Amino acid sequence: MQSVKEDLEWINKTVKESAFPDIEIHLTEWHTSPSSRDDMHDRLPAAAYIVKSNLDCIGLTNSLALWTFTDIFEEKGGASSIFHGGFGMINFQGLVKPSYHAYRMLHQLGDQKLYKDDYLFVSKKSSNGNVVALAYNYPEEYENAVPSGRDKREKGTNKALNFSLKGLKAGTLFKMEILDKDHGNIHNFWEDMGKPEPPTREEIKLMKEYANTMKTSYVKADKNGVLTIDHQITPWSLVLIQQIN
Predict the structure, then answer these.
(1) Are 125 and 132 in contact (CB under 8 A)?
(2) Beta strands of 7-111 (E only): which ranges?
(3) Omega before 98 within 30 of 0, i.e. cis
(4) How does pLDDT run along the chain (245 residues), one tens digit per residue?
(5) What is the pLDDT of residues 100-114, one digit of tens each?
(6) Which of 26, 87, 103, 213 is most buried, most CB within 10 Å of its CB?
(7) What distance in Å separates the CA atoms of residue 80 and residue 97, rounded to the nearest whole number?
């Protein structure tokens, strides 16, 4: 679970002790595993791992680039299935995976850190002062090893997300967007459809709509300007909370 952070900490220590202590560090190829046929790349747990690794590695590297953006690359050629464990965040049909939403949500965070713990990051945008928080559930049952692609459904225990934001204007509105096993998790939806190979145009249209639809709700700060979040994060899920006014 900590491998990316621990590797970068080792690299930083090695560089500082070298003859070139001020060189930049770029990690240009990384993922949950080195296999381009690992089913976990298509599944929900990859999203939680990506968010955790990115947040834990802030300040440790000049760049941290996932390999790759899409499943279309030359090393092993095409595959027999539209979902085959490819490295990409998007498959051949243009269907976005949970890993795509992990980066989409990370991109919404502000440039000022207000708070961070093991599963919650709260930020502020210097451009407009809006607060954006991102939380995730990497289940404690999998702290010693990432789950195998053979795990067909997402397992683990819930995590309580309880926190408050103070100093807001009364009635400040926030949007809560959730990626979980039943929302935006395209691989499971494809399985429930009977794994069409290849899917028709109509099926692709339906899957694209599903893949881009999160569980969404809205919450407000009370009359004292306090926003209270009390939510159970299901295993491997992401929760994005954005101030919208």
Answers:
(1) yes
(2) 26-30, 63-66
(3) no
(4) 889 999 999 999 999 999 999 999 999 999 988 888 899 999 999 999 999 999 999 999 999 999 999 998 877 777 889 999 999 999 999 999 999 999 999 999 999 999 999 999 999 999 999 999 999 999 998 888 776 666 666 789 999 999 999 999 999 999 999 999 999 999 999 999 999 999 999 999 999 999 999 999 999 999 999 999 999 999 999 999 999 99
(5) 999 999 999 999 999
(6) 87
(7) 18
The span from the CA of 4 to the CA of 7, in Å, is: 5
Q: Which residues pair with 136 in a beta bridge?
A: 238
What would the two tokens of residue 78 be? Answer: 């095409």
Angle CA 142–146–152, to nearest 5:
90
Q: What angle do CA 58, 28, 23 make, to 5 degrees?
A: 65
The percent of the chain in helix, strand and coil, each rounded to the nearest 5, is 25, 25, 50
pLDDT tens-place string over residues 192-231: 999 999 999 999 999 999 999 999 999 999 999 999 999 9
Provide the angle, in degrees to the nearest 10, between the axes of the packed helices 3-16 and 45-56: 30
For residues 32 and 147, the answer to whether their CB atoms sit within 8 Å is no
- Quote the CA–CA distance of 52 and 120 in Å, as a whole number: 9
Torsion sign (Cα): 7, 11, 17, 21: negative
| Residues 12/49, Cβ–Cβ less than 8 Å | no
Q: Which two tokens stand for residue 15?
A: 């560089």
Which residue type is seen at 156? G
Bridge partners of 180, per DSSP, are 183
Work out whether the CA dihedral 35, 91, 72, 62 comes out positive or negative: negative
- C-alpha 137/C-alpha 51 separation (Å) is 10
